[in-house]
Amino acid sequence: MTKTKIVIAGIGGVGGYFGGLLAKQYCDDKEIEICFFARGQHLLEIQNNGLKIIKGENEFVANPIIATDNPKEIGVADLIIICTKSYDVEAVVHQLLPCINDKTFILPLLNGVDSNEKIQKILPNNTILSGCVYIVSRLKQPGVIENMGNIQTLYFGGDNISDKKLKHFETIFKQATIEATLSQNIATIVWEKFIFISPTATATTFFDKSIGEVVTENHIEKVTALINEVKQIAQANNIEIAENITELTIHKLKSLPFETTSSMHSDFKNKKACNELQSLTGYVIDQGLKHNIETPIYVEVYNKLKKLNR
Ligand SMILES: NC(=O)C1=CN([C@@H]2O[C@H](COP(=O)(O)OP(=O)(O)OC[C@H]3O[C@@H](n4cnc5c(N)ncnc54)[C@H](OP(=O)(O)O)[C@@H]3O)[C@@H](O)[C@H]2O)C=CC1
Ligand SMILES: CC(C)(CO)C(=O)C(=O)O
């Protein structure tokens, strides 16, 4: 079998956790190469000391075959897993062009439903897979990722693609102990994640409270209204979703540890220069305008968050 080269682009909370498991499993493998595309001080730490992943009392250090900010050092990849924030997707794909030929699969694992279109515009001849993850994980300091909570699942697939290559990728993920599922219905799964994360990111940031707090009596009405608005957007996009998606989503939220919060809320709290307000909140309003669907609660909350953003 020929070598399989997998690049993880963006070694933050998500890329660091899943990339870390891959790099640990395949560090000496003759058939599978795991490469990290990172930058800055974080990259230097990984190059010098490896990437440390902390999970409760346990930790391990992962050493990818290459960690670099120079795509030419990596060469052409079979699969590029994009784990940046949504506002960095286009730039990172442009940077990674030397690693991409027509056969390279691209798998964005970001929150949101608009990355695939952005990537396909840059790479019209490539297969852009779809995917999403449920995990709570943060870049704690350069070279260190901390995974919290009780879920670490990854879903991926491509509508109308039945390729043994995808099965091969699933096997690679699973052997690295990643809870990965190759789905035949990935559009629904990615939109269900969006119906979950868009209201959650929006509400936790708006109220400046954890997920546990926003699903208590004080705020559940607003969260439910947000879910119902985004549900209509999914339906307008002809996505098959469960009729009781609102109840299912609230149930999912209640099953997370009380103190969990969204990565967008963390970014607002940490006053990061950029955040995903547009792809997680503003996008719903834009889609409402496109499909003639009213989204009054999104508009109210977005306008207030936009002011905080300045
Ligand atoms: N964190 C979580 O628990 C979850 C996050 N998500 C979603 O996953 C996506 C990733 O989130 P998360 O992992 O938290 O994000 P992070 O900000 O922790 O990580 C993104 C990483 O990508 C790096 N990066 C961005 N552009 C480049 C580039 N051009 N070259 C090299 N490195 C680059 C960033 O570097 P720098 O710091 O220098 O900008 C950063 O290290 C988001 O869409 C998020 O909403 C989904 C589920 C859970
Ligand atoms: C809420 C959570 C942790 C669930 O996966 C998430 O997706 C995020 O932080 O963006």
UniProtKB/TrEMBL annotation:
<feature type="domain" description="Ketopantoate reductase N-terminal">
    <location>
        <begin position="6"/>
        <end position="157"/>
    </location>
</feature>
<protein>
    <recommendedName>
        <fullName>2-dehydropantoate 2-reductase</fullName>
        <ecNumber>1.1.1.169</ecNumber>
    </recommendedName>
</protein>
<dbReference type="Pfam" id="PF08546">
    <property type="entry name" value="ApbA_C"/>
</dbReference>
<keyword id="KW-0521">NADP</keyword>
<comment type="pathway">
    <text>Cofactor biosynthesis; (R)-pantothenate biosynthesis; (R)-pantoate from 3-methyl-2-oxobutanoate: step 2/2.</text>
</comment>
<dbReference type="InterPro" id="IPR008927">
    <property type="entry name" value="6-PGluconate_DH-like_C_sf"/>
</dbReference>
<dbReference type="InterPro" id="IPR013332">
    <property type="entry name" value="KPR_N"/>
</dbReference>
<dbReference type="InterPro" id="IPR003710">
    <property type="entry name" value="ApbA"/>
</dbReference>
<feature type="domain" description="Ketopantoate reductase C-terminal">
    <location>
        <begin position="185"/>
        <end position="308"/>
    </location>
</feature>
<dbReference type="InterPro" id="IPR013328">
    <property type="entry name" value="6PGD_dom2"/>
</dbReference>
<dbReference type="InterPro" id="IPR051402">
    <property type="entry name" value="KPR-Related"/>
</dbReference>
<dbReference type="Pfam" id="PF02558">
    <property type="entry name" value="ApbA"/>
</dbReference>
<comment type="similarity">
    <text>Belongs to the ketopantoate reductase family.</text>
</comment>
<dbReference type="InterPro" id="IPR013752">
    <property type="entry name" value="KPA_reductase"/>
</dbReference>
<keyword id="KW-0560">Oxidoreductase</keyword>
<keyword id="KW-0566">Pantothenate biosynthesis</keyword>
<dbReference type="GO" id="GO:0008677">
    <property type="term" value="F:2-dehydropantoate 2-reductase activity"/>
</dbReference>
<comment type="function">
    <text>Catalyzes the NADPH-dependent reduction of ketopantoate into pantoic acid.</text>
</comment>
<dbReference type="InterPro" id="IPR036291">
    <property type="entry name" value="NAD(P)-bd_dom_sf"/>
</dbReference>
